[in-house]
Amino acid sequence: MNDTVGPVFAALADGTRRQVVQTLATGHRATATSLAAELPMSRQAVAKHLTALRRAELVRSSRRGRETVYELEPGALTEAASWIAAVGGEWDERLERLGRLVD
Questions:
Q1: Which of 58, 89, 90, 101 could be disulfide-bonded to 53 (CB atoms 3.0-4.6 Å)?
Q2: Is residue 91 over pLDDT 80?
Q3: Do residues 68 and 32 lie in contact, with contact meaning Cβ atoms separated by under 8 Å?
Q4: Is-contact 54 60, C-beta < 8 A?
């Protein structure tokens, strides 16, 4: 089985990474330096979190002069949301059947 959502959930298990994703989800591109200015941590620490997010395919990066600019890659989030919806839908069906049996 090809687990494409596992790395997404693992990356998003960290609160700082979720905060970075939330910041990038506003449509802004950002450098590690600009993200560090918004977070209580160093640029190097933010860069490590961005590396983990890039490995999970949640962000993409591009070079702009001397800086690396990061932006959200929504495809991986869409896959994870679809997985959650499918699992949730399955449980909704089971609960509905149980409710009919109880009635």
A1: 58
A2: no
A3: yes
A4: yes
Which residue, chain included where needed, has tokens 């490590």? 48
Element of type H or E holding 69: strand 67-72
Question: Which two structure tokens, joined as six digits, stand for 50?
Answer: 């961005």
Beta bridge partners of 40: none
Residue 57 contacts residue 46 (beta carbons within 8 Å) = no
Structure token digits, residue 61: 């990066």
Strand partners, 64: 67
Cβ distance 68 to 35 under 8 Å?
no
pTM, full prediction = 0.78
pLDDT in the model for residue 92 = 66
What token pair was written down for 87?
Answer: 């699992």
* CATH T-level fold of 6-102: Arc Repressor Mutant, subunit A (1.10.10)
pLDDT in tens, 35-79: 999 888 999 999 999 999 999 999 999 999 999 999 999 888 888
CB-based contact 70:50 (threshold 8 Å): yes
